[in-house]
Backbone:
C-alpha cells in the first residue's frame, strides 16, 4: 500500500502499536494526526517521528465531547481522512 499523501488519524499514538504505526506511516510520507491523552508524551512521540507532516491533538476517545472536537480538528488540519 502506498501511503504518501494519505491522511491518517492515529489514536493511542504515544506508545505500542499506535506509535509503531505512526512511525511506519510517517516514513512512507503519510500526513498524520496523532491523538492521545498525555500532551507531553504526545509531543515527544511526534518529535521522534522526525516528519514535517505530523500534527497532534490531545484527547480521550472514550469522551463523546473529545471525539466531536477531534473530528473538527482532523477536518481542519487534514481535510478528508483516508481509512486503511
Residues:
Amino acid at each position: 500500500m502506498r501511503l504518501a499523501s494519505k491522511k491518517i488519524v492515529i489514536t493511542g499514538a504515544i506508545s505500542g502499536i499506535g506509535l509503531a504505526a505512526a512511525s511506519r506511516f510517517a516514513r512512507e510520507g503519510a500526513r498524520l494526526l496523532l491523538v492521545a491523552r498525555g500532551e507531553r508524551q504526545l509531543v515527544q512521540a511526534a518529535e521522534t517521528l522526525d516528519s514535517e507532516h505530523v500534527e497532534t491533538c490531545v484527547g480521550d476517545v472514550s469522551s463523546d465531547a473529545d471525539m466531536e472536537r477531534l473530528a473538527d480538528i482532523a477536518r481542519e488540519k487534514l481535510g478528508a481522512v483516508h481509512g486503511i
Remarks:
- Residues 64-78 form the longest helix (15 residues).
- Helices lie at 16-27, 39-49, 64-78.
